[in-house]
Amino acid sequence: MFISFEGIDKSGKSIQVSLLSDYLKNKGYQIVKTCEPGGTKLGEKIKAILLHPSNKVSKISELFLYLADRREHIEEVIKPALKEGKIVICDRFMDATVAYQGYGRGIDIVWINKLNKIATQEILPDITFLLDINPSLSKQRGRGNDRIEEEKISFYEKVRQGYLEIAKSCPKRIKIIKGEDKPEKTHLAIRKIVLRFLKKP
Q: Do 37 and 47 contact (CB within 8 A), yes or no?
């Protein structure tokens, strides 16, 4: 089983990834908790390039760096874990590229989708949780400390709208969850959906 978490920065993804991972481990499942960018050794280096505030990266170069990170992630972490029957829980995956580089940066979305298929080998999450919050709340939760987080609120408004559009196009896979609730309440809503999925024959 492959689960991904999406949402704009400071939406609470990392907390929910940890809560769900811990819960499923306690239930006896084998869990691989990972993230993008940075889920591999090469990915950590790509992440440093992408997010360091002093780096000037063109939007096309940014796109290809994220895709390179994803390809290595698929090869080294995600595909092997799924073959072993483990549950993979990932903080960001392909939808982030469509939302950030497509809707946020204005790169052609059809083109991004084609490149994503190549990078992912068409491996899709079984469930994606979109933690939806208002961009103004995102800014209130913390100051930007990387190149992406330093973007203006108008950028995050476009990214959020992008995520909502993606969710509309994939209602079976993507579940929209309020990211403004207390973490414990959000976790219970997510847990309920995952347990229902795991009980399917």
A: yes
- The CATH-assigned architecture of domain 2-198 is 3-Layer(aba) Sandwich (3.40)
Nearest to 69 by CA among 97, 89, 108: 97
What pTM value is reported for the model? 0.94
Segment 114-173, tens digit of pLDDT: 999 999 999 999 999 999 999 988 777 766 678 888 888 999 999 999 999 999 999 999
Give the residue extent of every domain in the chain: 2-198
pLDDT attached to residue 54: 87
Residues whose CB is less than 8 angstroms from the CB of residue 44 and which lie 6 or more positions away in sequence, other chains included: 38
**Dihedral, CA of residue 59, residue 110, residue 117 and residue 50, to nearest 10:** 10
Please give the span between the terminal C-alpha atoms of the chain, in angstroms, as a whole number. Answer: 13
